């Protein structure tokens, strides 16, 4: 049994097909003075042809999956459009009289290696993309055809070190039942693609390439991030039946799509979706969301390797607002820093999570902040857009933000640009300081949304991205829940609403407690919505309040977990069977 990160839910069983990126060695060959011209022409044609191929793939991706997915290919196109790299290659061919393939390969590898060594996780993940583009040019120069990623006529589990964005474009409609990769996290392009294509996937499985051979029977459990290689008959049977149950279960959940998230005693909670790309909106609607509770806009900035301007942003925000209307979208301003580092920003900090992050960045780089606010406001004419600020820790920050927000509104009015003058702006509660001063903050803002991922990280002093301390990351810890209770109280006594948009909102064990604490909105990954709704619809608010009171009296995270897990097992045995590890009896927060 191999463990990795649950990147896309569901079960898949099929033989492995190992996708290897072929890297034939590129030999250094001397060329004669009379061959230089032809060699350079061949190289230029190779680059042009590679651009042509990549643009075609990009267009197809944009058409079939949307612009935000297509953007993954931009890093590759940038390399081909990098005149320095092309010029360097040509000059070295002329000067050293060697083959262009050798020189270009060296330049691409050097670029990929320096990007691969960066601290920034997102940029680091672009290193394989860059090698991918080098291989494309070399293949064209050699006159070899482009191979297909899946030459199979039967279902397979695709195993790979990683799958390049240009290759993921080929996955749609192919017989890929499941995916296992050695690298990647929940936000790697592979994970995002797999979720969009609804292919169960586990990423970050160390040495999967060594441990899984071509043709091995493989089970992918995308709910728990587990991969089983060559299971025995009994295990195979068990997973076949799980897969079957899961299909029925998801089918049942689909029936709930249009029902409200209302408890048996008539209390309704708003269930909305978290998205990172505008292309996720249709899927969020399909999963029965009532609005977008968190649109993480930094993704637009991170994928494009340059800052999108006001106009580009406006089009994306406006598209989301149009798609989700008449429901509301809460657009969060840039949250870079921490693990999300944009080109040239925040690198080299000792403590990036405590550093120049999110609103601190926006308040320093006010041009960027103001143009984002303008773009958001311009998209608000349907009266279904709200603005939200991440990582606000002090009331001084809030006041400064509010002044800027008003100034941007005044600018728009002066320029006669239409926007919703009642557009609400609210805060994410992500730090203990914000939670502890929520009573004061509530008087100067329109709504709260608790970012439980960060609130947990900062309350328990546990890095949310560090595997070594992952067992300490408990978003149901009493310290976190007690802060949440305080925030709800502060919000409600000031007549504003409060939601939660961290991963806890999709953690079925904790959902009853969130309801019992009085949260008005749960915003979660679209795929989690139906099962959260199912739990809400089978609860009574009275019971939920009782559970919340009990857990607030427990002193340890472990104690809360045990209590909630037992409750869950007895209240939802069918869900527990599917989602809880029956072998280890490990009752992890369910995703
Ligand atoms: C959070 O911190 O809970 C949150 C929703 O924001 P992000 O995960 O984008 O930091
Ligand atoms: Mg956060």
Keywords:
16 strands, Enzyme I, Chain A, domain 2, eight-stranded mixed beta sheet, TIM Barrel, binds phosphoenolpyruvate, eight-stranded parallel β-barrel, globular, alpha/beta, 591 residues, 48% helix, binds magnesium ion
Query: What name does CATH use for the topology of the domain at 270-564?
Result: TIM Barrel
Class inferred from helices and paired strands = alpha/beta
State the strand order across the main sheet: 1-8-7-3-4-5-6-2
The kinds of small molecule bound in this structure are: phosphoenolpyruvate, magnesium ion
Overall description:
By secondary structure, the protein is an alpha/beta fold. Among the domains are: 33-142, Enzyme I, Chain A, domain 2 (Orthogonal Bundle); 270-564, Phosphoenolpyruvate-binding domains (TIM Barrel). 48% of the residues lie in helices and 13% in strands. The protein has 26 helices and 16 strands. The protein has an eight-stranded mixed beta sheet. The chain has an eight-stranded parallel β-barrel with strand order 9-10-11-12-13-14-15-16, surrounded by four helices. The longest helix has 29 residues, at 36-64. It is globular and about 85 Å long. The relative contact order is 0.09. Mean pLDDT is 87; it is low at 587-591. The structure holds phosphoenolpyruvate and magnesium ion. Phosphoenolpyruvate (PEP) is lined by residues 294, 296, 335, 430, 451-454, 501-502. The site of phosphoenolpyruvate (PEP) has 10 residues, from strand 10 and helix 20.
């Amino acid at each position: 049994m191999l463990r990795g990160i649950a990147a896309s839910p569901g079960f898949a069983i099929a033989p492995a097909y190992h996708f290897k990126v072929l890297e034939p060695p590129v030999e250094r060959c001397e060329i004669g003075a009379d061959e230089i011209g032809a060699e350079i022409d061949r190289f230029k044609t190779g680059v042009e042809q590679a651009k042509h191929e990549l643009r075609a793939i990009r267009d197809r991706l944009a058409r079939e999956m949307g612009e935000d997915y297509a953007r993954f290919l931009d890093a590759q196109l940038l390399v081909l459009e990098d005149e320095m790299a092309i010029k360097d290659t040509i000059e070295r061919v002329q000067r050293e009289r060697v083959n262009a393939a050798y020189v270009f390969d060296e330049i691409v590898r050097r670029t990929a290696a320096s990007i691969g060594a960066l601290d920034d996780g997102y940029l680091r993940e672009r290193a394989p993309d860059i090698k991918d583009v080098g291989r494309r040019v070399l293949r064209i120069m050699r006159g070899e055809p482009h191979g297909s990623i899946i030459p199979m006529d039967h279902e397979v589990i695709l195993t790979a070190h990683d799958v390049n964005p240009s290759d993921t474009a080929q996955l749609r409609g192919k017989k890929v039942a499941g995916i296992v990769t050695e690298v990647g996290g929940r936000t790697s392009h592979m994970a995002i693609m797999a979720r969009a294509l609804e292919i169960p996937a586990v990423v970050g499985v160390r040495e999967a390439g060594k441990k899984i051979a071509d043709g091995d029977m493989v089970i992918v459990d995308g709910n728990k991030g587990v991969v089983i290689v060559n299971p025995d008959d009994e295990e195979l049977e068990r997973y076949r039946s799980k897969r079957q149950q899961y299909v029925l279960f998801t089918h049942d959940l689909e029936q709930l799509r249009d029902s409200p998230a209302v408890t048996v005693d008539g209390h309704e909670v708003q269930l909305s979706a978290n998205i990172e790309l505008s292309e996720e909106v249709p899927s969020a609607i399909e999963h029965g969301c009532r609005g977008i509770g968190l649109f993480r806009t930094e993704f637009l900035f991170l994928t494009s390797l340059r800052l999108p301007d006001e106009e580009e942003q406006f089009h994306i925000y406006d598209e989301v607002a149009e798609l989700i209307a008449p429901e509301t979208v809460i657009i969060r301003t840039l949250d870079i820093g921490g693990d999300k580092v944009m080109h040239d920003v925040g690198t080299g900090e000792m403590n990036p999570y405590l550093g120049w992050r999110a609103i601190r960045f926006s308040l320093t780089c006010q041009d960027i902040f103001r143009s984002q606010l303008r773009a958001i406001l311009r998209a608000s004419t349907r009266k279904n857009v709200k603005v939200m600020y991440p990582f606000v820790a002090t009331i001084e920050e809030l006041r400064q933000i509010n002044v800027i927000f008003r100034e941007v509104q005044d600018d728009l009015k002066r320029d006669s640009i239409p926007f919703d003058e009642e557009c609400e702006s609210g805060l994410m509660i992500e730090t203990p300081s914000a939670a502890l001063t929520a009573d004061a903050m509530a008087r100067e803002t329109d709504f709260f949304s608790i970012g439980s991922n960060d609130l947990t990280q900062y309350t328990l002093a546990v890095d949310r991205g560090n595997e070594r301390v992952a067992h300490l990351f408990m978003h149901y810890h009493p310290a976190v829940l007690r802060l949440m209770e305080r925030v709800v109280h502060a919000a409600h006594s000031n007549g504003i609403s409060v939601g939660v948009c961290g991963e806890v909102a999709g953690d079925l064990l904790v959902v009853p407690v969130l309801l019992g604490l009085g949260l008005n909105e749960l915003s979660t990954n679209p795929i989690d919505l139906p099962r959260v709704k199912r739990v809400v619809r089978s609860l009574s608010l009275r019971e939920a309040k009782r559970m919340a009171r009990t857990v607030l009296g427990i002193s340890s995270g472990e104690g809360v977990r045990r209590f909630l897990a037992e409750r869950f097992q007895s209240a939802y045995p069918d869900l527990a069977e599917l989602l809880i590890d029956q072998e280890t009896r490990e009752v992890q927060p369910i995703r």
